[in-house]
Amino acid sequence: MACSENEPIIxxxxxxxxxxxxxxxxxxxxVRCPNCPDGAAEIENLKxxxxxxxxxxxxxxxxxxxxxxxxxAYDFRTDAGDDLLELLGRPLGxxxxxxxxxxxxxxxxxxxxxxxxxxxxxxxxxxxxxxxLNVTGQYNDANRLLKVNVNVLANRSVNRPVNLSVMLLENKxxxxxxxxxxxxxxxxxxxxxxxxxxxxxxxxxxxxxxxGQFIERNFEFTIPLxxxxxxxxxxxxxxxxxxxxxxxxxxxxxxxx
Length: 257
What we know:
The protein is mainly β.
């Protein structure tokens, strides 16, 4: 995996320049968590409700809950997932998720139970995006090399550090999962965090971004043979760094496009 920075050439970034907001929900889950299929089902309901403006990530990092089962074909745990659990805070229980890395009003806790998700998403969608993002890529099936291009345009001046995080997810992974009725051998896992193309805490975009400033980042990654490339997608989002971790804008690109 590699990253590079190019000279700024401002291209069209599409409809986000008109103010369309996307929201990211980072769900923490595990194959041994019997509550978690209910959380995953709620996220699918929310994706129907909010459409393409909601981007979901499923992070298998929940202590013992994330340890593979004897029947598991895959280990969904990642170093990045463990880092994100520490970065965003451990939940009081599962299912739990972080919406746009922003806590509810009158709370400091980012991790929230599923009854809070819809309201947090709606509130985040009502905010104008501070950044416009465009994600494109190329995938070579012969050598399984993925090239990803992320363009960022500042919609306003931001006088504080902003980072870019880029995740690779896989959908339609059929494997074992526990629920309250026991073992589901053919459960479909979606939005599974497989790898981060940036450091877990993100890659710096700068400490003082000015209105209209354009930044380009490029990444390369070889997709393992055990992953289905056409089921993979890239999620990129710009966010604050430090105590306030709020996501400024997010975008998704699927390899099947």
